Amino acid sequence: xxxxxxxxxxxxxxxxxxLTADTLARELEVSxxxxxxxxxxxxxxxxxVYAERGRHGGFALLPGFRTELTGLNHDEALALLxxxxxxxxxxxxxxxxxxxxxxxxxxxxxxxxxxxxSDAAARILVAPETDxxxxxxxxxxxPGSTMAEIRRAVLTGRKxxxxxxxxxxxxxxxxVDPIGLVTVRDRGYLLATRSGADRTYRLSRILAAEELPExxxxxxxxxxxxxxxxxxxxxxxxxxxxxxxxxxPERREDLLNTAVAVRAAGPEPSPGPEPDGRLRLEAxxxxxxxxxxxxxxxxxxxxxxxxxxxxxxxxxxxAEMATRYGPASGA
Length: 331
Known about the structure:
Blueprint: H1 2-16, H2 21-28, H3 32-44, E1 49-52, E2 58-61, H4 74-82, H5 95-108, H6 111-122, H7 144-156, E3 158-164, E4 172-184, E5 187-194, E6 197-202, E7 206-215, H8 224-236, E8 241-247, H9 252-258, E9 261-264, E10 279-285, H10 288-298, E11 302-306, H11 308-324
Antiparallel strand pairs: 1-2, 3-4, 3-7, 4-5, 5-6, 8-10, 8-11, 9-10
Helix pairs in contact: 1-5, 2-3, 4-5, 10-11
């Protein structure tokens, strides 16, 4: 909404001083022409914003200008709640709303506290993109318009029409009853039901979405954490196979890219690396064949401890390879 954008523009000038039109356009995610029109609208409304020309020019507010800018809009309030989870600012298309809400919160503080709060925020990092054991994992992107339709249907309790591309299948349209949104390891999921059956959809595989006018068939209240735990348990308890293994930490990312799920396993209270530096993990695979293939790719960087059937198949495979590549007869 333009009113929210005008408020954000004033807050940016108040908190950061003189800014160019290009900088304001990047911060507000609009065109430079839109910024210039907004500046004109603010001036016409009596906000003392002025332009300075030259190499170091830009737009600024007259010194000492203050205005009461109170009240968060719906998305901003939702963004602040979502930000309590890891990397929430990037989840579900709420990044710009959170940036706007944060500017309002900072502006509401006494001037003597603003610098201290900004410095404190710069010294705290929550859930960075790269941890000590794995390489950077790119965040999945979902088009803003698609995410807005999904989010609106979830919050208003209306049916949702999805164009979904399941793995190894042609994209199809389907109508679902949305329950909630979950983000795990920078991957977003839509929890829903379809014809009464539980369904979980990867957000990055939703090609298009449309909120429908019909109300969704779902309970009025939901314990989303419990629902997610139950769905995870059902997913992992199917025909999957759990493998207890030791792994070179440098190959953790390779394992994450092939296994269905990976969890730390080891002595309480904190597993951590073993004396030789290897990690003790429990990895879930689709079946024995999948587990054998994945462990074989890791070579001597991984050792399967259980189940014995996997150790036997890997030992047999290694013996066959050793025989095939042994010294040629007569050499």
